[in-house]
């Protein structure tokens, strides 16, 4: 398996040059508050983000009292997240590594978040990653999976690569993201079979009305529960 299927070095380049996000995605905030186990004290609820970047989603969760961990293949992103947490007197376990080899014990987390990270890997790596997520989730734990859709305008502007990837995107909101896998419903559901119960599957489309060129942003939001 080629290294670029596991991690596109464009992200280390971006983060090393100062790319960051300070605030959490609204979809992640909603997922956490709706699906964390409310019978537990928040400090006992363990949340993992796969592809945590500079830690904005986990920064929110830590401020709300949850126990957070994050993994990203970019050393610069992890270093930024660690520095921000230290400055804000927050606790978080941040590690550098690939998504398909999670350095965490079995049945450990209550929630796992993927906000547009697994979609940057090929389909075979995504399958391995979801298997790892199932391993580290407790039974009854919830997984938020948020890949981009093959109805996205950027899809047709790229060229097909190996393992389901689209390369060299030249138009739309995904310009400059490097390799990316854009999912149809069949691909989403195929990742979340067997030991998963699908709780919610949403397809979101936003159409830009001002630009003269038709532009559609499209993504999936899937929430699944580990059943065994």
Task: Report the CATH topology name.
Answer: Rossmann fold
Let me know the CATH homologous superfamily: Vaccinia Virus protein VP39
Proportion of helical residues: 25-40%
Strand content: 25-35%
Total beta strand runs: 9
Number of domains: 1
Instruction: State the name of the first-level CATH class.
Output: Alpha Beta
Strand order of the largest sheet: 3-2-1-4-5-9-8
Task: Return the string of H and E elements.
Answer: HHHEHEHEEHEEEHEE
Low-pLDDT regions: none
**What structural category do the secondary elements indicate?**
alpha/beta
Architecture overview:
This protein has 228 residues and is of the alpha/beta class. It has a single domain, classed as Rossmann fold, CATH 3.40.50.150. It is 28% helix and 27% strand. It is built from seven helices and nine strands; from the N terminus they run H-H-H-E-H-E-H-E-E-H-E-E-E-H-E-E. A seven-stranded mixed beta sheet has the order 3-2-1-4-5-9-8, sandwiched between helices. It has a two-stranded antiparallel ribbon with strand order 6-7.
Brief descriptors of the model:
228 residues; alpha/beta; Rossmann fold; seven-stranded mixed sheet; two-stranded antiparallel ribbon; 7 helices; 9 strands; 28% helix
Summarize this, please?
The chain has 228 residues and is α/β, with parallel strands linked by helices. Helices cover 28% and strands 27% of the residues. It has a seven-stranded mixed beta sheet with strand order 3-2-1-4-5-9-8, with helices on both faces. Strands 6-7 form a two-stranded antiparallel ribbon.
């Amino acid at each position: 398996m080629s290294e670029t299927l596991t991690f596109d070095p464009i992200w280390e380049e971006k983060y090393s040059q100062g790319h960051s996000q300070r605030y959490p995605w609204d979809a992640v905030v909603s997922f956490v508050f709706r699906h964390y186990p409310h019978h537990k004290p928040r400090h006992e609820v363990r949340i993992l983000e796969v592809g945590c970047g500079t830690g904005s989603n986990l920064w929110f969760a830590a401020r709300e009292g949850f126990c957070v961990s994050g993994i990203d293949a970019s050393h610069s992103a992890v270093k930024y997240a660690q520095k921000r947490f230290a400055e804000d007197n927050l606790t978080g376990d941040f590690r550098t590594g690939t998504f398909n080899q999670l350095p965490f014990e079995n049945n450990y987390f209550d929630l796992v978040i993927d906000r547009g990270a697994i979609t940057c890997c090929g389909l075979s790596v995504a399958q391995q990653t979801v298997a790892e997520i199932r391993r580290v989730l407790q039974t009854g734990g919830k997984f938020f999976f948020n890949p981009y859709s093959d109805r996205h305008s950027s899809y047709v502007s790229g060229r097909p690569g190996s393992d389901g990837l689209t390369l060299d995107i030249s138009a739309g909101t995904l310009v400059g993201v490097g390799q990316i896998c854009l999912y149809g419903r069949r691909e989403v559901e195929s990742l979340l079979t067997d030991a998963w119960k699908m709780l919610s599957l949403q397809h979101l489309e936003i159409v830009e009305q001002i630009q003269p060129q038709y532009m559609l942003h499209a993504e999936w939001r899937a929430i699944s529960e580990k059943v065994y």
